[in-house]
Amino acid sequence: MTQASILRQITDYANRANPYPLYKELHKTPVLQDEEGGPYVVSSYWDIKGLLHDPRISSDAANLAAAGDDQAGVEETGLPPSFIRLDPPEHDRLRRMANSAFGPPHQPRRIDSMRGDLAQIVSDLIDGLGDQRQIDLVDQFAYPFPVTVICRLLGVPREDEPRFRAWVDPLVASLDPDTRESATAEFRKSAQEARMQLGMYLAGLVEERTKNPRDDMLTDLATNRGPDGAMTMMEVLSTAVLLLIAGHETTVNLITNGMLTLLRHPDVLQRLRDDPGLSVNIVEELLRYEPPVQLVPQRTCIADIELRGVTIPKGSRIWLVLAAGNRDPERFQDPDRFDPDRGDIQHLGFGSGIHSCFGAPLARLETQIALSELARRLGNPRLVEDPPPYRPNAVLRGPRHLTVAFDDLLP
Predict the structure, then answer these.
(1) Which helix (H) or strand (E) holds 383?
(2) What is the pTM of this model?
């Protein structure tokens, strides 16, 4: 295996179930250019963390396109780019405005006050399994849970929740670098149409909320007037679409990867069953051990950067392999061991810096509640297929299906 082939192997679906030996190989060359003219790949924990805080690294889609990524704008369909695809000061303005509707200090109880609702949604989903003794955890639990939560957070009517999967799936597929490189015109068109249909639907909701405000996030995004002014209609739509896609898919993978990991570590699963409070440590270690976002491929250098004796020239594309950083032996002792008792779990699972995960508090709470209840209520759960089939996406990595058998359903 040559160093220049590692990146292609990481994006190759054949290695989706276990990319970690490839990440270990990357550690031998922490700063690597993937073939001449290709992106620079960074895999060391400290280097990744430093670059996530470095203003010389751009997230702006325009800079990525200029660096040679001809699919950088594939998601654009008339809506402006969401703030995760922008640099300061515009990124900061939009993120401040979105955060004022999401959490402290403006809405200090919005997420914590959902704890009871989250527990009820989880309970209802598990109750809905009925007499089944073998389930697909993705389709029957991990997918419907966070999409229901995000829809209720925004204020989407419950009867419309089933419509979102048809819109979200092609949009998430468009985030995968391997898929984007081989994208057909039909694929690009389907992603554009899905984003536009979702935007048009949300536009109708925003119009309704401006006339009839409610206690939901969409109302706040549409009506808030703060020091940064107000979001335009297009900015509200772009932010809402971001929350639906990013806030949903990452949590699906976190829950599914979490249950898969617990079933592979039955001793930890039993400890969680006995002590639901352990869920806090378990989720943090999961974010290190099996992060739902494996790598960040959409960054560009806007100035020369010297890193470990390598000069990354201005205009170069750069890939930050978060999952490799999370298993960097220079940072974590015995990094390939799943250990919720680990004393220091300062992971990169939610990124770092100005683009750190906007919805991290909600994702943490959802996953803690989901895994605690699954551990408590599924009697003698076990994997039917290991490894399970994975989604094609190398960025948002997680099982497409996770078949779990169990003996009984506890009340």
Answers:
(1) strand 382-383
(2) 0.89
